[in-house]
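Backbone-to-sequence.
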């Protein structure tokens, strides 16, 4: 556990106040004094707190942090620390091609180098857009410098024609209306833009709100941090308090390794079910756990998370958006409800100091229409189902978004509840899907399952959010808005599709999906939690013997480095060699 700072030199003093090496000390000092710092500050036994700035013009979801910076710095200074802001490689979900997921590990890697190689004693991690939160927590876990996460908060609620319009979710809805001919291109654009009325990240319970909730559930941010909308005054107050607390963490020597325990991850998994969280949370949490050296397995999501009820009535699983979630109490209220029902480990630690139970004292739902109680949930058993079979070792399905219509259409045959047999139609990536979806020769109908492959970490590269494929236009016009879909990529956390995704191992490294052919029969059995191609063993073995790995086209050096070292989504999509490094802060770099 942590000890206090008595008799311990600050790490930054090795740079700024080291009489044993006056030459280097002078060189370190002169250039930092050349800007906004003085010798009293840098040599005065005050901790230097880095602020990892993830916001920029290229990363609008996190740009609020540019405006929060004064408050973070004020908090650090009022607690006796010296703030030093530094930039983080931008990861904008809706800007970076081929996908922002490719850059999570790049931002992670560069954060590790910054935290290890510069005169820092602690760090404030600014988080927001999907991948920024895991990248920051992964880096902090590897380095093990005292660290605290500050969410930028969601945008204000979006509205269109008097109805709530949620980030991402309105895209999936609107593209069906467009395919159906009910709206035109211009209205499509206007509808989507109406969902984004202010600075902040997605206002739905997509991957951004989910991952900020995960940071809070893990104990890595102050209670109440995740849900405060970006433009609210409470967000500025949270920035100030977070800056202050960062200094105290250094004084108390409270590090990520003290916070990121197995109990913390189990709590996070339960909270994910209760909030109706994103299918991107499992790979991100897996990556954080591996860098923290905590054992976690994709099957833990089934075992720990599946039976937890859905409490949060927020899009895409429910009706409301971020403002209502915040007013109903946000993450502490959800955790308070879970704790009350015995579904939370109150002994898990928090950066607030003390236990999670202490941090949650007095927190319950303030609006039970928005945050329900465990006794009266939106849905029972709202977690992920982890499937396996001859097409993959593991894949996830978010059962909380299975609509009554979907269940009735595909999963309720008399005597075969939760079972579906269908014909497979296979697409080789999103371009192939768009080119051929409306081709009548594919004979896609209600008895079809759509597959997409080649879109995992190695294949895409980075793993693409494309598994929530919509049916052909003709089928939508006939009233079929969803078909079951399967793939080795991911889907947006804002999607309401009950896809089977994150299939691992992916096809390009020889996962079973690679052997599937259009026209094969497949059988989904949610009771047994299996999905299998109904191809006899001999034929399957022949296909396996005939298979060769596709040649990959790298567009940049990073794509090649990433593909050479990345693992599978079930294992967090980490740079595998990086998972061997732990607590690197204890190994001071050469002078
Ligand atoms: Fe950045 Fe959703 S696109 S948070
Ligand atoms: Mg996304």
């Amino acid at each position: 556990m942590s000890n206090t700072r008595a008799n311990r030199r600050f790490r930054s003093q090795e740079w700024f106040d080291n009489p044993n090496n006056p030459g280097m000390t002078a060189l370190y000092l002169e250039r930092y004094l050349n800007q906004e710092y003085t010798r009293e500050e840098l040599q005065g036994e005050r901790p230097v707190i880095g602020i990892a700035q993830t916001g920029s013009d290229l990363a609008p979801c996190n740009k609020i942090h540019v405006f929060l910076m004064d408050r973070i710095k004020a908090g650090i200074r009022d607690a006796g620390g010296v703030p030093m802001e530094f930039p983080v490689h931008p990861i904008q979900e809706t800007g970076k091609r081929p996908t922002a997921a490719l850059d999570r590990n790049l931002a992670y890697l560069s954060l590790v180098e910054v935290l290890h190689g510069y005169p820092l004693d602690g760090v404030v991690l600014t988080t927001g857009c999907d991948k920024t939160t895991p990248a920051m927590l992964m880096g902090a876990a590897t380095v093990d410098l005292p660290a605290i996460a500050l969410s930028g908060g969601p945008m204000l609620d979006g509205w269109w024609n008097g109805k709530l319009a949620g980030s991402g979710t309105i895209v999936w809805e609107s593209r069906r209306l467009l395919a159906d001919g009910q709206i035109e291109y211009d209205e499509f654009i206007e509808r989507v833009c109406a969902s984004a009325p202010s600075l902040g990240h997605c206002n739905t319970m997509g991957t951004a709100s989910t991952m900020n909730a995960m940071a809070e559930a893990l104990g890595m941010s102050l209670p109440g941090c995740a849900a405060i909308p970006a433009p609210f005054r409470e967000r500025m107050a949270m920035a100030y308090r977070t800056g202050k607390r960062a200094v105290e963490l250094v004084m108390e020597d409270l590090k990520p390794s003290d916070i990121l325990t197995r109990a913390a991850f189990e709590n996070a998994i339960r909270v994910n079910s209760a909030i109706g969280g994103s299918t991107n949370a499992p790979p991100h949490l897996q990556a954080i756990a591996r860098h923290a050296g905590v054992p976690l397995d994709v099957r833990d999501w089934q075992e720990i998370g599946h039976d937890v009820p859905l409490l949060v009535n927020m899009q895409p699983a429910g009706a409301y958006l971020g403002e209502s979630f915040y007013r109903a109490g946000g993450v502490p209220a959800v955790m308070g409800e879970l704790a009350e029902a015995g579904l939370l480990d109150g002994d898990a630690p928090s950066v607030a100091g003390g236990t999670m139970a202490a941090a949650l004292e007095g927190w319950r739902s303030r609006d039970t229409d928005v945050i329900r109680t465990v006794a009266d949930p939106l849905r029972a058993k709202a977690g992920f189902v982890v499937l396996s079979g001859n097409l993959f070792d593991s894949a996830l399905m978010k059962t909380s978004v299975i609509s009554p219509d979907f269940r009735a259409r595909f999963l309720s045959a008399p005597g075969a509840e939760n079972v579906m047999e269908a014909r497979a139609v296979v697409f080789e990536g999103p371009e192939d899907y768009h080119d051929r979806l409306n081709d009548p020769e594919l004979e896609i109908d209600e008895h079809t399952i759509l597959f997409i492959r080649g879109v995992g970490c190695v294949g895409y590269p980075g793993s693409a959010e494309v598994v929530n494929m919509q049916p052909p236009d003709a089928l939508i016009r006939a009233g079929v808005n969803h078909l079951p879909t399967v793939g080795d990529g991911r889907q947006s956390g804002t999607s309401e599709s009950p896809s089977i995704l994150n299939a691992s191992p992916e096809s390009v490294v020889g996962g079973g999906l690679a052997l599937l052919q259009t026209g094969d029969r497949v059988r989904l059995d949610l009771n047994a939690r299996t999905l299998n191609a109904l191809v006899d063993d001999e034929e399957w073995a022949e296909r396996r013997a005939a298979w060769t790995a596709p040649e990959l086209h790298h567009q940049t050096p990073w794509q090649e480095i990433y593909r050479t070292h990345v693992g599978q989504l079930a294992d967090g999509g980490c740079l595998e060699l990086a998972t061997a490094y732990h607590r690197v802060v204890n190994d001071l770099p050469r002078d």
